[in-house]
Every structure is written in structure tokens, then in C-alpha cells.
Amino acid sequence: MIAVGDRLPEATLYRRSEAGLESLAVTALCAGRRVVLFAVPGAFTPTCSEAHLPGFVAASDALRAQGVAEIIGLAVNDPFVMKAWGEAQNVAGAVTLLSDGNGEFTQALGLTRDMRGGAMGLRSMRYAMIVDDGVVRWLGVDESGLRNSSADAVQAALPGLS
């Protein structure tokens, strides 16, 4: 599993925009700036839609005031689902939702969660991380529930990373 001090692996994430399917290199997304990256097991699932994503949307201004350049949420869902989830959750301008549709980034992080028993396949564990110029500075992972990877946990960690 990725750890504090590790550099993020090379990977491509995706988004569906008005221009079509866009591919975004993780290294380019994080280059030269502080980014909060959080992942959910699945778009439109209860905890993800009722608490995890809304927490980051609500905290987006406060996180930016603490020096975060961008808040990126991702899931092992396709770009169409992520776009629809963002529209349903009114995330515009607050959180950038990206797709790790094949789970390649999630696998490279070592944060894969086997949810085949719930008919969801291989997904991402619930986590949040603070990344400075591609290097993980803080990481919170939740095996269940939403405690270590919440927007509140990220906000609490930021002052210690200055």
C-alpha cells in the first residue's frame, strides 16, 4: 500500500466533458501544487453520496483557504457515471470527479477492495490523501465507515503539513 513519503504512481485518469473523453495524467494533475485526492468505493452508493462526497463539497472553500489547489474525487467507475454523479451532487467548481474505470491507479496504490460479494467487482478502498507535488504527505484509509478519510480529517491534518 502507498505510504506517506511515497510518490504517486504514473497513471491516467479520465473525465467526460463537453469536449468528449479526456485523459489526465496523475503526475500532471499534481505537479507543483497541493492536491487532496479522495476515493470512494462507488459513485451513487449510500455513504459515498450522503456523506463522503458532500463533505468535500461543503469543505472545498475552507480547504482551498488552507492551500489546497484542487480537490479530486475518484472511483473505479466509468467516466459517464462519474459525470452523472457530479451533476447529481452539484459538485461544479468544488470537486473534480475523475474515473479510474479499470482500477489501474487504485491497483498501483495498493488500495483495491474486493467487493464481488456485493456484485460490485474490484473497487477502491475509501481513502483520502494530501499530495504535494506528487508526494503523499498524509493518508487516511477507512476499512469501513467514514472517519479517517473524511473532509474533516483532511482539514485537521493540513495545519501540521505547512
What layout of secondary structure does this protein have?
Blueprint: E1 12-17, E2 20-25, H1 26-30, E3 34-39, H2 46-65, E4 70-75, H3 79-89, E5 96-99, H4 104-109, E6 112-114, E7 122-124, E8 126-132, E9 135-142, H5 151-157
Parallel strand pairs: 3-4, 4-5
Antiparallel strand pairs: 1-2, 3-8, 6-7, 8-9
Describe the structure.
The chain has about 160 residues and is α/β, with parallel strands linked by helices. It has one domain: Glutaredoxin, CATH 3.40.30.10. It has five helices and nine strands. The chain has a five-stranded mixed sheet with strand order 5-4-3-8-9. A two-stranded antiparallel ribbon has the order 1-2. Helix 2 packs parallel to helix 5. The model has no long low-confidence stretch (mean pLDDT about 95).
What is the structure about, briefly put?
The chain has 162 residues and is of the alpha/beta class. It has five helices and nine strands, in the order ββαβαβαβαββββα.
N-to-C SSE string, H for helix and E for strand: EEHEHEHEHEEEEH
Percentage of helical residues? 25-40%
Q: What number of structural domains do the residues give?
A: 1
- Portion in beta strands: 25-35%
What is the global morphology?
Answer: globular
Q: CATH superfamily membership, which one? A: Glutaredoxin
Summary tags:
single chain; 162 residues; alpha/beta; Glutaredoxin; 5-stranded mixed beta sheet; two-stranded antiparallel sheet; 5 helices; 30% helix; 30% strand
